[in-house]
Amino acid sequence: SLGEIANFLSFESISLPTIIGSQKVNICFLKTNNVYIELIEPTEENSPITNFAKEGGGFHHLCFEVDDIQQEIDRMVKNGAHLVVAPVKGFEDRLLAFLMLNLKKTKCKLIELIETKR
């Protein structure tokens, strides 16, 4: 269970599981110090993470909180990233977007940007 995982890893649960319909996922955040871990599970067979979950899951992407999501998208695209998901409302009604980095020697190429709460 979520509580068992949080307790075992000495994390504190900071959110209840929340379904994000637009992404077809159920998410929950855990926190330790200033590090947040997002647990993600698909809610539908055609979720963007269904295949990832079927293959055993694991580390999926990094997320960065930014003040101006469009400015950061423009900067990253100018430097070679590819926009995968244009800004949409997500967790806590905040804008988020996904970009794929053009890096050859790393497995983690997916970056999520989430706009700072206003």
From TrEMBL:
Coiled coil segments of this chain: none
InterPro entries: Glyas_Bleomycin-R_OHBP_Dase, MMCE/EMCE_epimerase, VOC_core
PROSITE patterns to which the protein is assigned, alphabetical: VOC
Listed GO biological process terms: L-methylmalonyl-CoA metabolic process
UniProt keywords, alphabetically: Metal-binding
Name of one Pfam family that matches: Glyoxalase_4
Keyword Metal-binding belongs to the record: yes
Keyword Metal-binding part of the UniProt annotation: yes
GO MF annotation: an example: methylmalonyl-CoA epimerase activity
Residue intervals of the VOC domain: 1-116
Protein name: VOC domain-containing protein
Taxonomic path: unclassified sequences, metagenomes, ecological metagenomes
